[in-house]
Amino acid sequence: MNSTNERESFSERLQQALKNAHYSPDSPTRLAREFNIRFEGRPITVHAARKWLVGEAIPTQEKLRMIAQWLGVPADWLRFGGAEAPGAQAEGSGAARFESADVKLIADLQRLDEHHRQLAREFIRMLVRMNHPAPSK
What we know:
0% strand; single chain; 434 Repressor (Amino-terminal Domain); 62% helix
Protein backbone atom coordinates (compact mmCIF):
# COMPACT_ATOMS: atom_id res chain seq x y z
CA MET A 1 0.00 0.00 0.00
CA ASN A 2 1.48 3.38 -0.92
CA SER A 3 1.71 6.25 1.54
CA THR A 4 -1.25 8.14 0.03
CA ASN A 5 -3.48 5.10 0.45
CA GLU A 6 -2.18 4.57 3.99
CA ARG A 7 -3.06 8.13 4.96
CA GLU A 8 -6.51 7.91 3.37
CA SER A 9 -7.21 4.56 5.02
CA PHE A 10 -6.08 5.93 8.38
CA SER A 11 -8.40 8.91 7.88
CA GLU A 12 -11.36 6.60 7.22
CA ARG A 13 -10.64 4.54 10.35
CA LEU A 14 -10.21 7.69 12.46
CA GLN A 15 -13.52 9.07 11.21
CA GLN A 16 -15.23 5.75 11.91
CA ALA A 17 -13.79 5.59 15.44
CA LEU A 18 -14.89 9.19 16.09
CA LYS A 19 -18.43 8.40 14.93
CA ASN A 20 -18.56 5.26 17.08
CA ALA A 21 -17.46 7.31 20.09
CA HIS A 22 -20.16 9.91 19.33
CA TYR A 23 -17.83 12.66 18.13
CA SER A 24 -18.18 14.51 14.86
CA PRO A 25 -15.72 13.30 12.21
CA ASP A 26 -16.17 16.64 10.45
CA SER A 27 -14.71 18.99 13.07
CA PRO A 28 -10.94 19.39 13.21
CA THR A 29 -11.45 22.04 15.89
CA ARG A 30 -13.24 19.59 18.19
CA LEU A 31 -10.72 16.83 17.40
CA ALA A 32 -7.81 19.14 18.29
CA ARG A 33 -9.51 20.34 21.48
CA GLU A 34 -10.43 16.83 22.69
CA PHE A 35 -6.97 15.52 21.76
CA ASN A 36 -5.15 18.35 23.56
CA ILE A 37 -7.19 17.84 26.75
CA ARG A 38 -5.95 14.26 26.93
CA PHE A 39 -2.40 14.48 25.55
CA GLU A 40 0.45 15.30 27.92
CA GLY A 41 2.84 16.35 25.15
CA ARG A 42 2.90 19.35 22.90
CA PRO A 43 -0.63 20.31 21.75
CA ILE A 44 -1.66 19.89 18.14
CA THR A 45 -3.10 22.61 15.93
CA VAL A 46 -6.47 22.54 14.24
CA HIS A 47 -4.54 22.32 10.97
CA ALA A 48 -2.83 19.10 12.09
CA ALA A 49 -6.19 17.61 13.12
CA ARG A 50 -7.63 18.56 9.72
CA LYS A 51 -4.74 16.81 7.98
CA TRP A 52 -5.50 13.61 9.94
CA LEU A 53 -9.20 13.83 9.04
CA VAL A 54 -8.68 14.40 5.32
CA GLY A 55 -5.91 11.86 4.86
CA GLU A 56 -2.98 14.20 4.40
CA ALA A 57 -1.05 12.99 7.45
CA ILE A 58 -0.84 10.26 10.07
CA PRO A 59 -0.03 11.18 13.69
CA THR A 60 3.11 10.00 15.41
CA GLN A 61 2.93 6.67 17.22
CA GLU A 62 2.67 8.36 20.63
CA LYS A 63 -0.25 10.50 19.46
CA LEU A 64 -1.87 7.59 17.69
CA ARG A 65 -1.78 5.47 20.86
CA MET A 66 -3.46 8.26 22.82
CA ILE A 67 -6.18 8.66 20.16
CA ALA A 68 -6.82 4.92 20.18
CA GLN A 69 -7.07 4.85 23.98
CA TRP A 70 -9.40 7.86 23.99
CA LEU A 71 -11.70 6.41 21.31
CA GLY A 72 -11.57 2.84 22.67
CA VAL A 73 -10.04 1.18 19.62
CA PRO A 74 -6.88 -0.90 19.20
CA ALA A 75 -3.93 1.30 18.19
CA ASP A 76 -2.77 -1.19 15.57
CA TRP A 77 -6.26 -1.24 14.01
CA LEU A 78 -6.35 2.56 13.93
CA ARG A 79 -2.95 2.73 12.22
CA PHE A 80 -3.06 -0.28 9.93
CA GLY A 81 -6.63 -1.58 9.77
CA GLY A 82 -7.39 -5.26 9.92
CA ALA A 83 -10.08 -7.58 11.14
CA GLU A 84 -11.03 -6.03 14.48
CA ALA A 85 -13.48 -3.18 14.00
CA PRO A 86 -13.66 -0.44 16.62
CA GLY A 87 -17.24 -1.35 17.50
CA ALA A 88 -16.05 -4.73 18.76
CA GLN A 89 -16.36 -3.60 22.37
CA ALA A 90 -19.97 -4.07 23.37
CA GLU A 91 -21.83 -1.31 25.20
CA GLY A 92 -21.79 -3.01 28.59
CA SER A 93 -18.24 -4.27 28.35
CA GLY A 94 -16.94 -1.96 31.06
CA ALA A 95 -14.87 0.11 28.62
CA ALA A 96 -15.71 3.60 29.88
CA ARG A 97 -15.81 6.65 27.66
CA PHE A 98 -14.98 9.81 29.53
CA GLU A 99 -16.23 13.32 28.93
CA SER A 100 -13.70 16.15 28.67
CA ALA A 101 -14.30 17.25 32.26
CA ASP A 102 -13.68 13.69 33.49
CA VAL A 103 -10.38 13.49 31.63
CA LYS A 104 -9.32 16.84 33.06
CA LEU A 105 -10.24 15.65 36.56
CA ILE A 106 -8.17 12.49 36.14
CA ALA A 107 -5.23 14.55 34.87
CA ASP A 108 -5.55 16.84 37.89
CA LEU A 109 -5.64 13.84 40.25
CA GLN A 110 -2.46 12.48 38.69
CA ARG A 111 -0.70 15.77 39.44
CA LEU A 112 -1.40 15.43 43.18
CA ASP A 113 1.05 13.82 45.57
CA GLU A 114 0.21 10.31 46.77
CA HIS A 115 -1.30 11.42 50.08
CA HIS A 116 -3.76 13.80 48.41
CA ARG A 117 -4.60 11.25 45.70
CA GLN A 118 -5.51 8.78 48.45
CA LEU A 119 -7.72 11.40 50.14
CA ALA A 120 -9.46 12.06 46.81
CA ARG A 121 -10.03 8.32 46.25
CA GLU A 122 -11.54 7.93 49.74
CA PHE A 123 -13.78 10.93 49.20
CA ILE A 124 -15.02 9.56 45.85
CA ARG A 125 -15.69 6.14 47.41
CA MET A 126 -17.68 7.83 50.16
CA LEU A 127 -19.77 9.74 47.60
CA VAL A 128 -20.42 6.55 45.63
CA ARG A 129 -21.52 4.71 48.80
CA MET A 130 -23.85 7.60 49.68
CA ASN A 131 -25.42 7.62 46.19
CA HIS A 132 -25.50 3.83 45.71
CA PRO A 133 -26.03 2.19 49.09
CA ALA A 134 -25.46 -1.55 49.34
CA PRO A 135 -28.69 -3.59 49.18
CA SER A 136 -30.01 -4.81 52.53
CA LYS A 137 -29.75 -8.54 53.25
